[in-house]
Structure prediction request, 608 residues.
Amino acid sequence: MCGIVGYTGHREAQPVLMEGLSRLEYRGYDSAGLATLTGKDLRLRKSVGRISELAAVLKRHPSPGHCGISHTRWATHGAATDINAHPHLGGDGDIALVHNGVIENYALLKRQLEQRGYRFRSQTDTEVIAHLIASYLKDDLVEAVQKALVHLKGTYGLAVISPRFPGMVVGARLGSPLVVGLGDNETFLASDPGALVGYSQRVVYLNDHQLCALTPQKWEVLDGESATVSATVHSLDWEPEDTDKGDYEHFMLKEIYEQPEVLERAMAGRLHAAGATAHFGGLNLDPQQLRQVERVIMTACGTSYHAALIGEYMFEQFARIPVEVEYASEFRYRNPPLEHNTVVLGITQSGETADTLAALRESKAKGLRTLALCNVVGSTIARESDGGVYLHAGPEIGVASTKAFTAQVTVLALLSLYLGRMRHMSHAAGSRIIDELRAMPDAVRATLKCHEAVKEIAAKYHHVNNMLYLGRQYLYPVALEGALKLKEISYIHAEGYPAAEMKHGPIALVDQDTPSVFLAPHGAVYDKVMSNLEEIRARGGPVIAVACENDEHIEARADDIIYVPRVPDYLQPLVVAIPLQLLAYHIALLRGCDIDMPRNLAKSVTVE
Ligand code: AGP
Prediction:
């Protein structure tokens, strides 16, 4: 997805704009550009390709000034070319603008503007907005932006500067996130708070239909009628080192290794030993209200959807609450019958996923209570839900989600404990769960010792074209997640399946070139999984088993083995996911793939 950074203040804008873009690189893009103001002089620099190409342009032609905007473009309308890269100019250079989103009626507006004599340089929908603002520009930049927005159909997160208004950056949001960063004698604007880390810890999130007017000394949030609106200042609990790879080659590997601490942070302050339960500060539902809940719908996308599947098992096992898990993109249009005592729980790392946001908005419109598990403080989903729980996993930069997944599973376990204890779960059972949860960070630390074994297995199988991931019960969603990790970063086709389901068709895929990853730690369904494993072996399929360290039988029954510590069944996802993340990482590395920025993918899918 595209990225936006804006700045106005005492610093030179160019380095701030470029560093901000580098923090947004993981979102995926194909061109980049910036514009800065020195007094009334506007300079524009842009380039197709990576940010490094833009840096090369700037080395030859710096862009001075203390006010500017920058953008990484993920092409929607118009190919990835220098001309189509943002910023785009409006009028005769009275306006420079960057834009995230899609303007659906741009063709009509473009024709109308051309008839009024405006000359278009690019094939983008964005350029229409720039000329439209220029056509209204008189003595108030905010007013000109507002008048132009009225004509737009579609979505936008945009940032605008003008040589006629030196030192001012105007932003506007409808359907594509924008956040204002507050500093001393400087203000920032970005499409993602990650771009502001190291510059500002105090942020204000714009809501849909809101604008902001920024100068070095002043920031203002306005509604569509220019009325100033009150805005909440959030504190980002991220540190500069969070957005630095440190000693790791990739963010993904760093984030895999952060998981023990991530689990500790997800549980910090939420375990209530005396009451043998958990507690949360932001559910905005008291125990009486929660007792009335008779059904939960969990809705999410991608990896978060897999975490939701684990949550379903947990809620039903420990709280005996019926749960249904829905792909957000399906749920938002399915219009299922929903009883009033249903809670809809959105699970999302970014808090900006368009389908998940739409599913929650649809639920709210039907009068249902909405909750969110989210990793980004103040993100749209976090703000629009009736309550929720933050993951506190720190910024997840790698496109392939790892630490957010295990943080989500941990929080879902805490919620299951909390809901179970307010129903039938005994104090003793609650205490046991707390002890088991407290042991998990060390269990994950121990699991990371499998790294070298996984590397060897990756070397053996990195050339394959297909892989199967098979698990049962709590490990069926982990099978899906392991397959997704491999697909995402190595581009190998992989399928996750319930292990028993293989008999109903997919086993036809098995041959000596199609390895199967069996998730087979000791547990309630161990014997059943081993039977399924034998079915694959009998057909010549190579088997990679994830098993417990003290498993005496697995040696004779698998071609390769990854050992993990024994943990309770419901917590097995937290350890079994680790070797699958590492396996995908090392196979992708051996295949020369771009691990932190896989092709075609974006970290936060803010379009439908
Ligand atoms: C996970 O590795 C993917 N990057 C993707 O499936 C992601 O989980 C999905 O887009 C949902 O994102 P969210 O958690 O930010 O809503």
